[in-house]
Amino acid sequence: MPKKAIIYDLDNTIYPVSDIGEKLFGPLFDLITESGAHEHHMESIKKATMRTPFRVVAQRHNFSDELTQKGINLQEELEYTEPIASFEDYPEIKNIPGLRFLVTTGFFKMQHSKIKQLGITSDFDEIHIVNPVVTSKKEVFADILKRHNLTPKEVLVVGDDPESEIAAAKALGITTVLYDKNDNFSKEEADFKISHFKDLKRIYQNT
Ligand SMILES: [Mg+2]
């Protein structure tokens, strides 16, 4: 069935978080270091923070309730104020016809500032910043399909995280494309696996 729309993830799909992570999360890493309880694990905490929602990182690393809450409060105010470069293959997505949606989970101000600094706002028909306390990617995907009269088979979901947007898309029967630049995952994780956006148009047109 010909596709009509693509839903994209933001972090590690449009740009690499590692490029801005030390600066963006600097105040958070300082807070965690200053708590004194995690100094031996800072490198793994930093890596996880750039790949995984903060609540999950906090749980896995046994942060105290107080440190978790302080970390959340801090990140609610964090913004990135410098230009951000997208992945070099990002412009390829503009050669693909149809509707484009950007759906990202995270702190509103932070996600909004990143989208602004990437300069990608006008590339998308709709942009959604999902607050996981209020809703989920799955609900937002379902709402997009409903409002635009799209069936699951007319849509691709593209993202880097099998446990996030890929899982949400699978639950709705939407075709999934894992964007796996560093070959972290097996090809069984999604319907398709790509490492460059030049390969996306063919999937869009031929599946
Ligand atoms: Mg991501």
TrEMBL record:
GO terms for molecular function: hydrolase activity. It is an enzyme of class 3 (hydrolase). Keywords: Hydrolase, Magnesium, Metal-binding. Its EC number is 3.1.3.-. Signal peptide: none annotated. InterPro entries: HAD-like_hydrolase, HAD-like_sf, HAD_2, HAD_sf. This is HAD family hydrolase. It comes from Flavobacterium rhizosphaerae.
